[in-house]
TrEMBL record:
Gene3D superfamilies: Hotdog Thioesterase. Pfam families: MaoC_dehydratas (PF01575). This is MaoC-like domain-containing protein. It comes from Caenibius tardaugens NBRC 16725. Transmembrane segments: none annotated. Residues 15-133 form the MaoC-like domain.
Length: 157
């Protein structure tokens, strides 16, 4: 690594740390608005009576709705931002699995674990986060994923 070690030392100290967000309730209104925005009108999401007749027992959130909450949950978890960050970019996701349905009215939270942060080019880093989306009162998580984020730090940070 090059330059001032302040930001780099801070980054190195974060590996292995976990941060949990606040709980967020996914209610039917949120589900319906997501259906409108994405044009995904599958009945298991928007028709409570018909969905109640299935093994699900009622409507469930879209998996992609749960996924789309990641930026909000990340902000709520207060992950530490290295000093001198000038820009951060979403690089992508690996190993996304929707492991349990989220029924309308359930609360979820994100638990973010910083796996590693590697300097790819001078002052440009890739951070790997393992994510577990927990459901309040449930043993099985709603979703798991690995999130890749790129960020740049200012020269000398």
């Amino acid at each position: 690594m090059t330059g001032n070690g302040g930001a780099r030392a801070f980054i190195a100290e974060q590996a292995g740390r976990s941060f949990a967000s606040d709980w967020v309730t996914i209610d039917q209104e949120m589900i319906n608005r997501f259906a409108e925005a994405t044009r995904d009108f599958e009945f298991i999401h928007i028709d409570p009576e018909r969905a109640a007749e299935t093994f699900l027992g009622g409507t469930i959130a879209h998996g992609f709705l749960v996924l789309s909450l990641l930026p909000h949950l990340r902000d709520q978890a207060h992950l530490p931002i290295p000093p001198g960050v000038t820009v951060g970019l979403n690089y992508g996701l690996d190993k996304v699995r929707f492991t349990a349905p989220v029924r309308s009215g359930k609360a979820v939270r994100g638990v973010f674990t910083i796996v590693d942060t590697v300097e790819r080019q001078r002052n440009q880093f890739q951070q790997v986060l393992d994510i577990v989306i927990e459901q309040e009162g449930e043993d099985r998580p709603a979703m798991i994923a690995r999130w890749l984020v790129h960020f740049t730090i200012a020269e000398g940070a």
